[in-house]
Amino acid sequence: MDHNIGYSAYIKKQISPSFGFKASYLGGKVGGAYKDGTQSFETKTPWSVALSGEWTMANTNWRFFNSFIKPYVSLGLGVLNSEATVMTGSTSNTFDSQSKLYVPADFGLKFAIAKGINLDLGYQLNWANQRFDGSDPAVGPVPTYKNDLFSYAHAGLEIALGNSSLPTLNNSNPVATLVNDYNTKYDDLKAQRDALVAANQALESKVASLNTDLQDDDGDGVANKFDKCPGTPSGVQVDGAGCPILVKNETKIVEKVVITEADRKTVDEAIKNLEFETGKSVIRPTSYNSLNRVAALLVEKDFSLKLAGHTDNTGSLQLNLRLSKERAESVKAYLVSKGANPSRIEATGYGPNQPIASNKTAEGRQQNRRVEFTLY
Predict the structure, then answer these.
(1) Mind listing the pLDDT tens digit for each residue in 132-161?
(2) Phi-psi label, residue 4: left if phi above 0, alpha if psi -120 to 50, beta otherwise
(3) Residue 117: partners with Cβ closer than 8 Å, 6 or more residues away
(4) Global pTM?
(5) CA distances to 48, 64, 344 from 259, in Å
């Protein structure tokens, strides 16, 4: 038996972690000679193709961890092309090329050297046709019909194709993967639970602290945390700090405001003489004298005055409300400029909402455009 170089390649579809189908190619040459040296042969095998089933034994469910060493066996059927040359002494005879069925049986070990990459060390037996070595087993004193057999020892790399983020199926054990996933999820869930327990304990501590701070031992309505006078007797009125409030006996004096007819007349004249620039809140100078008398009356007798601005219904409601308010404020500003107390003057605008005459006539609209003065 001679030793020669061969070459092979295959592509495999992994059906499960322990079984797959592979289509393989094998080429090279095979040679040998009789021990007495009378005859030798050399058979070239340009190509061969075969379909085999491969069983990876280390990936069956009886193991619980993803191993790095995986024994395997495979068996298949294919077509082998060969051309044999027989040498007898100095004479050689080359036979015609032929393609025949052959049976490859392979077994070996695969070593996981990286993710998705295995080192494949194997030994393959190939049962070929009877004339593989150029001899005719049916001729001779003792005819034989055994098939020729040649072997192929190989070392190579097996590289996984497909999504690199997923585990390689032929390197995966379902039981081990399930256990690893369970352990990972268990660790994650335990970490989340521990974090929740710690957070709940911290929250319970804060709630307990708040409950302590919000207790009111003396029942005065002020929590202990803010009570600067703890132990206040029941029924005693306290301030925001929980301390008793000292209530002085005070006599409330109620002043009676007396408004004379002369006072009302002064106000009425101011109302009649009050004029504004058209569509504005600017007071015309002709109204100053009567307003001055009202201001003097407010200063002298310390009256309070309510100013109510009104308009007709010409224009939008929003515009009239704003104009009536601005006119009342304008009168208040003028009276304050003459010495009246601003805190005793109230200015309000009602717009067209309180007419005293019909808005259908010019005379009625004129009456509705007014500022009312009310002393009190």
Answers:
(1) 888 766 554 455 557 889 999 999 999 999
(2) beta
(3) 157, 158, 159, 160
(4) 0.46
(5) 129, 107, 15
